Amino acid sequence: MGAAVLLRAALALAAFVCVEGQSFGYATSSDGKKWVINTGNELAVTMLRSSCDIVSLLYKNQELQYKAKYTHINSGLGSVTSQIASTTVDGKNTIQITCAKTGITQYYFFRPNENAIYMGTYHTSDLALGELRFLARLNRATVKSGIPEATLDDTNRAIEATDVYATAANITRSKFYSAIPFIDDQIHGVYGPKAGVYFVMSDKAYETSIGGPFFKDINNQCTTANELSFYMNSDHTRTEDYRYGFHGPYALVFTDGAAPSSTSVVNFSFFQKTSLQGFVPDSQRGRVQGTINDPTGVLASSNVVVGFKNAQAQYWTQIAAGGKLSFQSPLMKPGQYTMTVYKKQLAVATANVVVSTATTTSDVTVAYTHTKTPLWTIGEWDGTPDGFLNADKIHKMHPSDARMSLFKPYTFTVGKNVAGDFPLALFRGVNDPLAISFQLTSQQASQSRTFNVGVTLAKSNARPTIRVNDKWDGPVLATYAAKTRGDTRGVTTGNYFLYSYTIPSSALVAGTNKIALGIASGNPDPAEPFLHASVVFDGIEFI
Fold first, then answer.
1. What are the pLDDT digits (tens) for 160-176?
2. Which part of the chain has CATH 2.60.120.260?
3. Which first-to-last residue range defines the signal peptide (predicted)?
4. Distance between CA atoms of residues 283 and 272, nearest Å
5. What is the mean pLDDT of the segment spanning 439-455?
6. Residues 124, 130: contact at Cβ < 8 Å?
7. Is the peptide bond before 181 cis (omega within 30 degrees of 0)?
8. Of the candidates 65, 69, 63, 64, which has an alpha carbon nearest to the alpha carbon of residue 51?
């Protein structure tokens, strides 16, 4: 009995020395229930062995961990099988913690003198999860400031479900407004006067997520706790099936407050020397390189993105506006992929490519083109509502926000109004009918015409309807709505579809014509007006 007591005391002392002495290493708590890991650079992390919940984040003698709840995958994995080991990886001492249960394995790595927790997540369909995230719950006494649009301090009511809130002045806040597109999300985080906590993404962090380069998800909610998250998969405006496999690597990085200037603050290269379930090293990957042929100048001076996806993985690379139309993909897992070229966010070319462990050369030709000159166009065909009324605000606030221009029935007059007068979205029962008034000569009205409506996102089985001059109704076409709301959550990207209507000459007149846009949906509308069936516009044209 005396020996056991001495052993526990020694372990407790080891943990204490590890923290106070700032040497790199780990120890087990005196009760045997926790591991204490010290990076040797004033960061000590305490983790429950039974669940791998992080219960303390002590950085430069500041407790950053919120105590009422912990830091972990999702809201905690419950009971797991866990192990800790000190090994040498890529020439450096490395502490590895492995936490496993059926369907999921979470890996943690600590490296000498680095204020970072390196991570990777392996998830299979054996464990059904509505969403997959890593969530750091942080102490607002030390990590006070979150992303402003997701900070709920001054709100006094929920205005939509329990995730969109408003202040007395009707300034809206939501965790959804913290999101940024995956393609732009390399570093995101929160901070206090003397400490900052940031997720830093490797170039493979999103390869097993869903949604593509323009998808985005929750990064922060700042309320009682300052909640910092990395969403790997979720049902938030989801448009494709979940991918399974290895997510990451990614890192949680600790600073004196300011965000890291670049992802080079960490070095993910040591993962190449590990043997993690589902992780594919660079030596077993390949690239795609090629040239985009754009014979009709569709891409012009637009930003160009080349994306790749299959059921197992997704990747993308960017080409600067006006740059040479050649590309090289990131390192990709071998397999067959659909390659898509985007003009901003509008898909303009696709091709199938096969990736091997060598470099694959694959050129692609832009097939998308407007072969006819429209009589008029509203907006720019780029896969986004950019340029329309409220489009500059919709990603960071609710449509009902006091800073928004009012959504109301409106008549847009071609030749008089500009795209910035046209609403980015049409909500049934809120700003319908949305009418377009335009002039035709007798010759122009003497033949059938094509009317195109580009929809970037639809909600509640919505699709547009058209009525011409109060006497001809266009057909009600199919819906391509996402299954969950988006336009009230700061999202305008979904299942893109171009609705095309042929208007007979009998419906047109010489002089003033009017097309009234409405919404068709078999779904009943709820009490909240902005949860009504809706569509978000890309562009509209009359040919």
1. 999 999 999 999 999 99
2. 376-542
3. 1-21
4. 8
5. 98
6. no
7. no
8. 69
